[in-house]
Amino acid sequence: MGERVRALRRERGWTLELLAERSGVSRAMISKLERGEKNPTLVVAARVAEGLGVSLSQLVGIEARREIVVVPKERRMVMRDPETGFERQLLSPSFGGELEFIRNVVPEGSTSGEFPPHRRGVEEYVVVEKGRLRAILGSEEHVLEEGDAAYFEADVAHRFDNAGVGECSYYLVIDSRGS
Predict the structure, then answer these.
(1) Most buried of 22, 39, 68, 144, CB within 10 angstroms?
(2) What are the residues whose beta carbons fall under 8 Å from the beta carbon of 162, sequence distance 6 or more?
(3) Residue 144 in contact with residue 135, Cβ under 8 Å?
(4) pLDDT tens digits, the chain, 179 residues: what are they?
């Protein structure tokens, strides 16, 4: 991922300082990421992606665009936060589209961590597959039960916590077409 961060930053003609300012991630951390000395948490990776103006999936990897794309379970792009156990499974192809379909798994008593606001016009859709999910969207808090769905304009900081007993999983669609 570090090489991709460096390539995108250089493509834009940005310094480490400018990316640090835009992402809210320290210059030192970005430098370590680019050199492959550090693996970021999901939240740090999301901040860097937002700072670069790309989705997290676009930052992590790109596939060639095809008419029909099958993503076998064993080839899903999976990111797991070692600190929280939060797991993000990209279900849609990672070829840089403006629509992402994701399955997230939150262990009991854990959280996604706080994701930074997206660009204006980015929308997120959530549906709880299993368990109980607390969605903190800007200054609002909502508890969603199994089967409940929610939509929000994602230009606010947001976090998802497991608010129940056992593992919680939910599907997330991120729509960047309006940004």
Answers:
(1) 144
(2) 106, 107, 108, 109, 110, 111, 131, 132, 133, 134, 168
(3) yes
(4) 888 899 899 999 999 999 999 999 999 999 999 998 988 888 899 999 999 998 887 887 654 455 677 888 888 889 999 999 999 999 987 666 688 999 999 999 999 999 999 999 999 999 999 999 999 999 999 999 999 999 999 999 999 999 999 999 999 999 988 76
pTM recorded for the entire structure: 0.69
Calpha distance 162→86 (Å, rounded): 10
User: 8: helix, coil or strand?
Assistant: helix
DSSP string computed for 17-81: HHHHHHHT--HHHHHHHHTTS----HHHHHHHHHHHTS-HHHHH------SS----GGG-EEEE-
Separation between Cα atoms, residue 118 and residue 85, nearest integer Å: 23
